[in-house]
Amino acid sequence: MTPGKVFFAIILLLIVHLQYRLWLGDGGIVQIRHYQARLDVLSQQVREKKERNAALYEDVLDLRNKGQEAIEERARHELGMIRENETFFQVLE
Question: The whole model's pTM is what?
Fold first, then answer.
């Protein structure tokens, strides 16, 4: 084997090794794509949770500010409750 062939073989092995690490190794392109997909899913979940938290915070503020009126409104709409001496009418269409 001539020194040129040995040098070429070493360079070729080095290129193969670096390509393997680039595509399949730790921190390679495949792993980065996997992490990016996971990050996108988690970011969407965070956005949904923030929206839910904002809605709940608005409910808390409403309950604090309106007090008894807001509690009564929620009881009527969500639980179907009525006051004493009230008559409930249900309209069917």
Answer: 0.53
Q: What are phi and psi of 91, to 5 degrees?
A: -100, 120
Q: Is the dihedral of CA 38, 39, 44, 47 positive or negative?
A: positive
Sequence ranges of the domains in the chain? 8-79
Closest of 57, 87, 85, 59 to residue 74, by C-alpha: 59
Q: How many CB atoms lie within 10 A of CB 40?
A: 10
> 76, 82 in Cβ contact below 8 A?
yes
15-47, pLDDT tens digit by residue? 888 888 877 777 778 888 999 999 999 999 999
